[in-house]
Amino acid sequence: MKNAASADQQAIQSTNDKDIIVIKDMNKWYGNFHVLKDINLTVKKGERIVVCGPSGSGKSTMIRCINRLEEFQRGSLTVNDVEMIDDVKNIEAIRKEVGMVFQHFNLFPHLSILDNLTLGPIWVQKKPKDEAEAIAMKYLERVKIPDQANKFPGQLSGGQQQRVAIARSLCMSPEIMLFDEPTSALDPEMIKEVLDVMVELADEGMTMICVTHEMGFAKKVADRVIFMDGGEIVEQNTPHEFFDHPETDRLQLFLSQILQH
Amino acid sequence: MKAKEFKPLPAQPAPVSTIGVIPWLRNNLLSSPFNITVTVIIVAALLAIVPDMLDWLIFSANWSGETQAACVKDGACWVFISAWSQQIFYGSYPDGEIWRVNLSLLLLAGVIASSFALPARLRNKVSVPAYLCLPFVCLLILDGSYIGLKEVTTDLWGGFSLNVLIAAASIIIAFPFGFLWALGRQSDMPFARSVSVTCIEFFRGTPILALFFMGSVMLPLFFPANVSVDKLLRVWIILVLFMSAYMAEVFRSGFAAIPKGQYEAADSIGLGYWQKTLLIIFPQVIKVSMPNILATFVMVFKNTVFLLVIAVPEMLQVIMAALSNSNWLGGHAIEGYLFVGFIFWICCFSMSLLATSIEKKLDTSHKN
Ligand SMILES: Nc1ncnc2c1ncn2[C@@H]1O[C@H](COP(=O)(O)OP(=O)(O)OP(=O)(O)O)[C@@H](O)[C@H]1O
Ligand SMILES: [Mg+2]
């Protein structure tokens, strides 16, 4: 019994050691503008990463490259052992593993909440409708708004919409979740309800990359915090080291600015 | 220190609205000496014109009878319309077969009604194929030769039913075409883009009259001598292409109204190009484009009267033929043209009412 348990433990350990995202020397240009410069980043399964940095530093661009909302021109990216190349099969395979939550929710306004959630399972995963609806309800319960299933996105508050957006991604049972400033379009009272859902998700062992300026969240859940500026990863460290002993002067300046208020 | 208790104020009823007929009159028509003068002049002018007009149109009009001889009173000779009503509505379609025209019109009405009455889930599965099949089903019914009915050749089709059916058949087919052209126009593929742009610009830049002449006079020159394509079919194709070009532009402005985030969200959950286009983008484009779609339809519907220039016996053509009929040479042009105008106005007005109701129905995105 004890052996079995430790074997289990070991299995978890070994999956956790797996590199699920590997970015090597990624470079991207918008025209002549060099947005991403030699990005190198390896994310292990189950790791929770927070990305921060000043506006225009390329945070969004970097995480949007991971599910091919943006293309990069040089370097390589591997997600769950699939290489990101210009091939529909690979892109599809990667998008299946990666869920994304946007700053402005991007729910489909013409579909009810339930239809927003079942769309992916039905059309991409080809699940039967009742199964898809069961999954959708399960995740709506997890984000604590099952009672809103038949409403339309326009009838929900920002915080509720963002939770629906999280549930919509989760319905595709992704291995990795990307968050691009999920709370920065929200009123303070709604930020907490969204962060609570994200903390729960983190506690369940989801691999997450989260662009956010919620430093409380970073301290609480992040395994690693990454600081970007001018298209580069300037510094990365555990939250404790990151906030208490920033190495570069750039990060010190950034932290002093955002912690002022 | 004890915090002060927060007591929300009780809600109060909204102030009583003071809007009514009398205040409206006072505010809008009689608010200043100038306004009063203008109002008085307009009312006087109306009083001078309207009674005579009503008298001619209704009270002294000739309502019953069969021939021109029945028009003895001073007013309008509506007998002219009633005597020619069958041709006005059905052209020269044979007497005994007119039920086929009515059936086609009923099918059209039924399909339109179904798209309103059916619950949302069935609508896409039932109404969309029904719409797309409708033109061809009507074609089979009206022609008859393929389904074991008496053949009625297209030169006998005519009248107002032709205006309605050809306009409907055109817009239905133009819908997917226009959408494809709009997609092509914004596609990354140079071939698809240049084909779409050429089609759109050609058919939008050429007046419909010129297109009709091209269709009826020029196109046959390009066909081999032994191949003859039915005139009405050619006209239909022209209308479809013309309409597609307009629809493509309508859809293009619809596409522009869809936020980029919608595409990104669809991509991020892994939908393919066609799934994304048809499930996410198309419904939203339709929704924002609805007023323009209906406007385009009204335009094409009205343009069907231009078919008379190539001697297709649509409604106005029938009226003009009737006016030059030797039994009716009394000069009933006013009655005839008024009637055509009235029928078209009724149809276009109901379409704009329809448009409003569709807009309301589709409006799910906002709270108010
Ligand atoms: N489509 C585009 N074309 C040209 N330049 C772009 C485009 N999108 C972004 N950029 C530029 O790339 C840089 C990085 O943008 P990005 O959105 O990744 O920044 P960010 O770190 O996410 O900033 P923020 O905190 O404001 O969201 C910015 O300078 C921006 O102006
Ligand atoms: Mg950003």
Brief summary:
The complex is a heterodimer of chains A (261) and B (368). Chain A is of the alpha/beta class.
Itemize the secondary structure elements and their pairings.
The complex is a heterodimer of chains A (261) and B (368).
Chain A (H helix, E strand, L loop, with lengths): L1 H15 L2 E12 L2 E12 L3 E5 L6 H8 L7 E6 L2 E2 L4 H10 E4 L11 H11 L5 H14 L15 H13 L5 E5 L7 H16 L3 E5 L3 H7 L2 E6 L2 E6 L1 H6 L4 H12 L1
Parallel strand pairs in A: 3-8, 3-9, 6-7, 7-8
Antiparallel strand pairs in A: 1-2, 1-4, 4-5, 9-10
Helix pairs in contact in A: 4-5, 4-6, 5-6, 6-7
Chain B lengths: L20 H8 L4 H27 L19 H5 L1 H6 L7 H20 L2 H24 L15 H27 L4 H16 L2 H15 L8 H26 L3 H9 L4 H31 L11 H9 L9 H30 L6
Helix pairs in contact in B: 5-6, 5-7, 6-7, 7-8, 7-10, 7-12, 7-13, 8-10, 9-10, 10-12, 11-12, 12-14, 13-14
Bound molecules: adenosine-5'-triphosphate and magnesium ion.
Adenosine-5'-triphosphate binds next to strand 2 and helix 2 of chain A.
Strand content of chain A: 15-25%
Assembly annotation:
heterodimer
> What is the distance, rounded to the nearest whole angstrom, between the alpha carbons of the first and last residues of chain B?
43 Å
Task: Please give the largest β-sheet of chain A.
Answer: 6 strands, mixed
- The tally of strands of chain A reads 10
Low-confidence stretches of chain B: none
Helix content of chain A: 40-55%
CATH homology-level superfamily of the largest domain in chain B: MetI-like
**What low-confidence regions of chain A span 5 or more consecutive residues with pLDDT below 50?**
1-14
Count of helical segments of chain A? 10
Number of strands of chain B: 0
- Please provide the ordered H/E string of secondary-structure elements of chain A: HEEEHEEHEHHHEHEHEEHH
Mean pLDDT of chain A: 89
**Overall average residue pLDDT of chain B:** 86
The appropriate CATH architecture of the largest domain in chain B is Orthogonal Bundle
Instruction: Write down the domain tally of chain B.
Output: 2
Shape summary of chain A: globular
